[in-house]
Amino acid sequence: MIQTLDQTFAALADSTRRAILARLAKGEATVLELAEPFELSQPAISKHLKVLETAGLIERRVAGTTRPCRLKKDGVEAVDKWLGNLRQALTANYDRLDVLLAGMNSKKKKQKGKKR
User: So where are the chain's domains?
Assistant: First the structure.
């Protein structure tokens, strides 16, 4: 899984590839449709698509003479699962901090009450 995540995050490191994924989130598209908003050649876009495909983020299907691309559920879910684990750890850390701060505030209120 780590190897796959390395490839995935390497693929996501490029802004053009992230833009391609954002476009594919709206639905399937051909290479020509994906190339439209960029000042890149079709072969350059195809190279980006190959990186995304190798990383498991997209898949292509044959439809006559075209090969439309779409997001690949498994690849996107793997990233989401990994990030979900980080979110859980972060939430647990914040929960522990909240408990610690609440305890500190409680002690301060008790000390203020004793001084009066």
Answer: 2-115
pLDDT in tens, the chain (116 residues): 566 789 999 999 999 999 999 999 999 999 999 999 999 999 999 999 999 999 999 999 998 888 999 999 999 998 999 999 999 999 999 989 988 888 888 777 777 766 65
d(CA 42, CA 55): 20
User: What is the pTM (predicted TM-score) of this model?
Assistant: 0.76
The answer to whether the CB of 58 falls within 8 A of the CB of 69 is yes
- DSSP for 9-74, please give it: HHHHTSHHHHHHHHHHTT--B-HHHHHTTSSS-HHHHHHHHHHHHHTTSEEE--BTTB--EEE-HH
Q: Please state, in angstroms and rounded to a whole number, the distance separating the CA atoms of residues 62 and 80.
A: 28
Please say whether the beta carbons of 13 and 5 come within 8 A: no
| CATH dotted code for 2-115 | 1.10.10.10
